[in-house]
Amino acid sequence: MMTGISIEEEFLLVDPRTGASCPRAEAVLARHRICCPLPEGAAVHREPRPTQIEAVTGVCETADELYGHLTAGRRTLAEAAAGEDCAVIASGTPLRPSPDRDHDAEDRFGKVEADEACGCHVHVGVPDRETAVAVVNHLAEWLPTLLALSGNSPFDGGLDTGYESWRTVRQSRFPGAGIAPYFADAAGFEEQVGKLVDCGILVDEHRTFWLARPSSRWPGVEVRAADTASTVDEAVLQGLLTRGLVRTALTDLDRGVEATPLDPQMASAAVWSAARHGLSGPAVDPVAGKPVPVGDRVAALLAHTGQALEDTGDLALVRTLLGILEREGTGAGRQRRAAADGEIAVLRMLTEETVPHA
C-alpha cells in the first residue's frame, strides 16, 4: 500500500524583539542553501509573500523519520533566519498585520486575498489519480475534525477573534474554499476544475482552495485542513491521522465501499464550527447533520482510523499525542494563555515551541 507521508509547513518570519513581520524570505533561503543541510528529499521553498517561508519533508514511511525531517527543517530555518536578524514562528496568522501585499492575489481576488495565512499540508501517496479522487471523497467528513485539532490562529491584527482558526475564516473568502464537492471520478473532477479556470475563478488547475484535493504533482492526496502546527508533535499528529484516514479509505475502496456525499450546508457548518470552537466547544457531524460534542468526533476519528494506525505501528503514539493536546490545549489556546502576559509573551512562546531544542 503506497502511503508515504510528506508534510509542507508554512512559517512566518518575524522580528525576534517585536514580532513584526520581516520580509527577508529570499535572504533566509539563500543563507540556508549555503550553510544549512537538510535530510535527503527535504527542501525549503519561498512563498508568494516575502514574510513567509516553507519547509517540506521528504517522503517518510515511519513516525521517527517524520520527526527527524520536521525537526531538521525547523532548526535549519531558525539558523538561517537568525543569520538575517529574524526568527521563525509557526502560527496560522501573524501577531501583527503586515504592510506587505500579495499583488498577484489582489489582482485576481481584490481585497479577498488571504494575507499571511500559514497552513500544515499533508501529502499521502496513492496508486493513481482516479484513486486519489475517490479517497478525497472518503476524507471529507473528517476534515473538520483535523481542523479542530489544529487551531493555531486566534489573533487578527493583534486582536482576539474568538476563533481557534482565524486562518480558516480568511481562506473561506476564496471561491471554492472548504470541503470539495463529491466527484464520481477523475474526469468529473478535471471538468469542474477546468470550468473554474475558464471562468477566471482559479489561476490554474493546480491552485484549488479545497481542504483536501488530489495532488497536482504526483499520485497522491493533499490535505490542507490544518493550521500550521506550533509544535513538531502536532505536525506529526496531523501526518499520522491523515495517513490513517487515507489507508482506511483505500481499504474501504478495495471492499467496494463508496463515500457518502455530504450535504454542502452541513459540510460548511462543520468547518465553521471547527474553526470557531476547535476542541473547546460543540462540533457538527456533517453526515448526521446534527451538533455533537467535539470529543465524540475525535473519538470517532480514532476509532475509524484505529486499524490503519495499528497496521503502521502508530496507534499508541497517536493516542499519546492526542492526550498531550487534550491536557495542554491547542496552539490557539496556548497563544491566548500567553497573551495574558502581553504580545511579547506570545512571541516568546511561539518561538520556543516552533524550534525543538536539541
Automatic annotation (TrEMBL):
Show the GO MF annotations.
Answer: ATP binding; glutamate-cysteine ligase activity
What Enzyme Commission number(s) apply to this enzyme?
Answer: 6.3.2.2
Superkingdom classification of source = Bacteria
Q: Which UniProt keywords apply?
A: ATP-binding, Ligase, Nucleotide-binding
The Gene Ontology biological process terms listed for this entry are:
modified amino acid biosynthetic process
What InterPro entries would the database entry show?
A: GCL_type2/YbdK_subfam (IPR050141), GCS2 (IPR006336), Gln_synth/guanido_kin_cat_dom (IPR014746), YbdK (IPR011793)
Q: Please write the reaction equations for the catalytic activity of this protein.
A: L-cysteine + L-glutamate + ATP = gamma-L-glutamyl-L-cysteine + ADP + phosphate + H(+)
Task: Name the SUPFAM superfamilies for this protein.
Answer: Glutamine synthetase/guanido kinase
Per the similarity annotation, which family is this?
Belongs to the glutamate--cysteine ligase type 2 family. YbdK subfamily.
What name appears for this protein in its UniProt entry?
A: Putative glutamate--cysteine ligase 2
Task: Name the source organism.
Answer: Amycolatopsis umgeniensis
